[in-house]
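Colleagues,

Please find the record for the three-part complex below.
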Amino acid sequence: MVQSLDTREEIIQVATQPYVLNIGPHHPSTHGVFHLRTVLDGEVIVDAEILIGYLHRGIEKLAETRTYTQVIPLTDRFDYLASMTNNLAYCLAVEKLAGIEVPERAQYLRVILAELMRASSHVMSLGFLMNDLGSLFTPLFLAAREREKMLDLFEMLSGQRLLYNFMRIGGVSQDATDLFLFKARQFVDQMPMYLNEIDQLLTENEVFRVRAEGTGALSAEDAINFSCSGPVLRACGVDRDIRRDDPYLIYDRFDFDVITCQNGDNYDRYRVRLGEIWQSLRILDQALRDIPSGEVQAKHPHFLRPPVGEAFSRIEAPKGELGFYLVSDNSIAPYRFHVRSSTLINLTPLSKMLIGWKLADAILTLGSIDIVLGEIDR
Amino acid sequence: MDAPVFDNWWGHFLLFAPICIFGALTFLLLFLWFDRRYWARYQIRVGPNRCGPWGLLQCLADGLKMALKEDIIPSKVDKFLHGLAPLLIMFPVLMVFAIIPFANARSGVVPDLNIGLIYLVGITSIVGIGLLTAGWASSNKWSLVGAMRSIATMVSYEFPVVLSLVGVGLMAGTLSMNGIVEAQERNGWFILLQPLGFLIFFVGMMAETGRSPFDFMECESELGCGVNTEYSGLRFGIFQMVEFMEGVLMSFIVATLFLGGYSFPGSQGIFPEGALGAVFGLIAVMIKMFIVYIFLGWIKCTMPGRLRIDQWMGFAWKALLPLSVLNLIIVAFEVVAFGGAPNFPAWVLFINLPACIILIMLWSRFWTTGGGRINVRAVRQGHTQGA
Amino acid sequence: MTIALNTHDVAEEITKRIPDAVEEVSNNYILVKGQSLYSVSQFLKDSPSLYFDYLNCIVGTDYIDYIEVVYILESYKHNSTITLKARAYGRDNPTLPSVVALWAGADFQEREIFDLLGVTFTGHPKMKRIFLWEDFEGYPLRRDFL
């Protein structure tokens, strides 16, 4: 039985029965093989349960039988829309464990690639969010057009468009050519035009605001209690960004803002992501200006044997806080390899965010949390 | 090509009808090609350009593909209703094409049904029954949700549409489509004489015919194909074709009722009578339909999303319905004041247009979409499995 | 900069409140006894000077004699972090108390450790497998699985 907020007790209702609807693994809008079992009363969601594991590949077990360098291609496949940041987080954890120093040029290159990756991932998530709203792909094509430019840059460097396998322990695998830096500079100069276009078309659009404002709201206390991170956390008003609060690489040398909003609803998450693309462009501008010359990979033995111990290191990935926990027993393979997956933990408050809203809001909320099944299921 | 040829029984059914049907289908296929190229331009891509010169045969290829696919029918469906639903959706749409006047009735080529508006409203309602049948007969909860949404939308938007049509009928003094076009010939296009009625009809008809942003019949990204989920092969092709045909139908109806159909104001007697004049009329209707369709396609491609179903309902009942009632009252007053339909001066435009603007601004200020978070209590017992 | 607090100081504070809880202190982590895990966590979360309101990560590792579960806690107010460990002994049915009542973010992570390593967390509202299907036998991340 569903009662409306003004609780009129005497409403005579036709006898209804809640039914179970599987927003199932096969669905055009679930961003992957994701199963959300909802119980609906009419259109109102009264319960939602998450069932995952359709993409579980056992990467954590696989990593125990590969050398530290051989694990890097495995890490590509977690958040496959933002592979560079996965590689980066893993390499940082190994470097912390083994005590390897990364040369300057490699640090700058890593920052450039991480910020390009963040822009690409956020642009894609904005496009797919509009798709979930029902816009018949037009904003998606605009977003894909911009992402193509970024993918061209990545292809110039690593030869790959999606799963780069580019970072190495101690640096990056190859040096960036001058052509790459020139084209990256061109991209940074021309991207604001597209962001302004998106801003004009979508941010103040009545239909989008009416659908997205208020729905799927999460309070700041709940966000912290549920261990959310990334844009989900910042949209609720919590001012936390690992790049500023616990800087890794050389982020303490760059000047950028942390975007927060107040309400934690779908509209605020969209605004946080759009704002973060602007900040990424700012960081890219500074990094491309100051990049020194030098080596791009520190020397370490071919079969790296870190000393016995454990390390946990995390970065601000586009989807949230991505951490890697490594335990070493002085052999060539990690003893334990675990991913602190940002999207799995961001999904924890999903049923709380959905109950009381309608079916259409469920799809929109799922889209705005921006999940990637590779990272959830591993 | 003289009219009396077609007065014969065999002349009509063996010559005229096949020409019409073949011509109509070819026209629809070519128009579908245009629709897809036009849609592609909004999305910074080219559209079909490989099949045949400039991609003209693409739609034929798609139709053939649909027809040749395996028709998979799930085992639990109600077979009779499952097969009946595409027909229930397709035939009413085709039937409405019959009353659209492509030329003056005096030329002897086009029929003149004197209850055209009632026929229009009645027959398009059957499409709703077809959608409900399709959703119910496919034993699939997603289809049912889609069907429920579509029925709710069609029933809700029926009211504003019918009330604005009554306004059109009042101003023209007749219910027949030919008569409405002749009235526009005398007085001016109804889009200028009743702007509010036109806007309400436009939006309401978009909802009725399932055009985006009200596309519950097309694959909704939320519902995973909605009503069409359990259909495959030619029956799925019928659904797709009907969705497109309804868009074309709506353009024709708007062109006829509000944009003057086959005539221009004051063009009585300019074009020759008979079948030659019919050709001029046909070209005029086509051009107007084209313009309306361009607007429809523009809206479809650039709307950034749909409203939620309860927001659609709120829009129909709380915004469109009162506005259409007010529109009807204003038109009724004007008709009575000017003593019946044929004596309508064109300067009522200056009353109706400001009234339209004022009313719309008033409503946009005070109307809210409503709908929020519902307080859900006591539902965890027994509904979730394995909780 | 997120500061990793001095584990010896924190261990002292814990021992003052809850004696006998801390088993071992190293420079990187504090090892507590399994049964006092919940009370130590509650103290760490509620104490105003420590205020670890954010549970970052829960990881389980299989060292053959025991399964070690690591809790990485963070405090947003003080921008500090600490690592807490607890060990679950036994191969048949190792158990630990669940901290879901304190940090709701532990929900999926504890289910994952149950699914892949076999540690049951008592007090968890829905202790069932999350990645693998219900009838799966065995715990894949254990060292003796494959």
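Chain B has a mean pLDDT of 81.

Comments are welcome before we finalize the supplementary table.
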